[in-house]
Design brief:
Blueprint: H1 4-13, H2 19-22, E1 23-30, E2 38-39, H3 41-55, E3 61-67, E4 71-80, E5 83-93, E6 99-107, H4 109-125
Parallel strand pairs: 1-6
Antiparallel strand pairs: 1-2, 3-4, 4-5, 5-6
Length: 126
């Protein structure tokens, strides 16, 4: 079984404590605003936990998803500070059904800039 169902439950509940059970120790996180990949379970959990706080708005929803044997493409949308943001989570997992790569893409530019600002402040606090 793939980890996407559990990922959806984490997103819906906002409870990031269960992230540890679905993230591989060698996971790589690709942020839309950080130039270098963030390597390792600890950094991935830190970024996803910060994102849960920033994106944890009632307007956040996944609107499309494509899932195959080892990969998922989950399109989302939300509205923050009056800006309509559209993005994609590209998630890959290994044979242990642990997420091994998590890549976030966001548009438009104003949305990317806002997320950069909000994530920066949130990452400093957690």
């Amino acid at each position: 079984m793939n980890p996407i169902k559990e990922w959806h439950e984490i997103v819906k509940s906002g409870n990031t404590e269960n992230l540890s059970s679905i993230i591989d120790s060698d996971c790589i996180f690709y942020s839309p605003v950080v130039f270098t990949p963030q390597k390792g379970k600890e950094l991935t959990i830190k970024y996803l936990s910060a994102a849960a706080l920033v994106f944890g708005d009632d307007s956040f929803k996944y609107i499309k998803e494509v899932i195959n044997e080892k990969n998922a493409c989950l399109e989302f949308e939300l509205k923050l500070n009056g800006i309509e943001i559209n993005g994609v989570d590209l998630i890959s997992w290994n044979d242990k059904n642990k997420i091994s790569e998590f890549k976030v893409l966001i548009r438009p530019l104003k949305g990317v800039q806002l997320i950069h600002e909000l994530m920066g402040g949130t990452l400093e606090r957690i």
